[in-house]
Amino acid sequence: MMRLAAVLVLAALGIRQEPAKELDWLLVYYMSYDNNLDHCGPVILDGLEEGAKEGRIAVTVLADFRDKDGLKRFTLTPAGRREETLATDNSASEEVLEEYLAWASKTHPARRYALVFLNHGGDLDDMSLDEQPGAGISKQWLSARRVGPILKKFRDGVGGKVELVFLQQCGRGSVDNLYNFRGAGAAVMASQTSVGAPNTYYAPTLKWLAANPESGGVELARRIMEDDEHYVNYVCVRGVELAELPKRLDAAIEPLLAGGSLTMPRRPKACFGGEREGETNYDLLGWLAAAYADNGRKPEELAGFQSWVKEKLIARHQFRSEARRKPAWCGVSLFVPRTPELLRKYKDYPLYEAGKLDEMWKSMTQ
């Protein structure tokens, strides 16, 4: 009623209330840098501002720094930079994330969206470290298994127009993690290894996007890979295929389970984490091939899954340096819980609940 009354008053005064004009692209950044990445924030904001000077695009950034003055919400457009301060300092809150996404889509409606999460990546479920979330708050990470459904809800709310979800954080390219983001975007981009900072793609990629607004999520991911210099390898997977992951993975696991007790393969080299800490990721296809070999299974029974990963799931995989000797990695990894304690820690993880992966771990760890 109040909004209707306001519209009537404006109409009586002869003032037309124009609806927000739809952008070609809105890039929504979540930069939780209340940690040792704080110094990268200004560099990133400058790069994004430079890139947003052209075309019908805009960038929003919810930023958390080491000060305790509240989260900063930036809007970057061809008109310049606008900054607001929020009442909360907690970027490890899924509720804060959800409110930010709602504000972004309402304030800047667009034909296409990209959602980007900057920060450290920690254990399997950890993303976006906030070392000082506020007095009396102990939770310092966003939970990937909770963030995924929030992003899917956002995508549904904007008519499915989320082209890319970019997890610009270390080690988020495991299938266990990526499965959390099924339905969240047409494409999901991450890395199975560590990712550097502050990264270099912001200005050139946004200028390219302004000149190529009809591009989709896979094309945007490819451009980021070409313009960035601070990474080892990136992968872009097709969002529609993530829903197929449990069924496809089960087909690769069943031949292992059919042969009785299993031993953990020892040959693969970790691509993220450390075995001393226990939370370690290995290249998905490399680890499975080693598991087949060490447990006497026929390698041809893995061929169908290998083809699906390379030809259907992965849209693009790229190493940064072509001159450097590259590991024989496919681009996505697998979290390997080497102890019963770690398996119990994640017993209700979505990918475990959806398929037979936990059965294989039980056979190898008990």
Walkthrough of the structure:
The protein has helices at residues 2-12, 41-51, 94-107, 144-157, 175-178, 202-211, 217-227, 239-242, 245-258, 284-294, 303-313, 340-345, 350-354, 357-365, and strands at residues 23-32, 57-64, 72-77, 80-85, 110-118, 126-127, 142-143, 162-168, 187-190, 233-238, 270-273, 279-283, 314-319, 333-337. The chain has 366 residues and is α/β, with parallel strands linked by helices. The protein has a domain at 23-240: Rossmann fold, CATH 3.40.50. The strands form three sheets. It has a nine-stranded mixed sheet, sandwiched between helices. A three-stranded antiparallel sheet has the order 11-12-14. A hairpin with a 2-residue loop joins strand 3 and strand 4 (80-85). Helix 2 (41-51) packs parallel to helix 6 (202-211), helix 3 (94-107) runs parallel beside helix 4 (144-157) and helix 9 runs parallel beside helix 14. The longest helix is centred in the first third of the chain and has 14 residues, at 94-107. It is globular, with a radius of gyration of 22 Å. Residues 1-11 have low confidence and may be disordered.
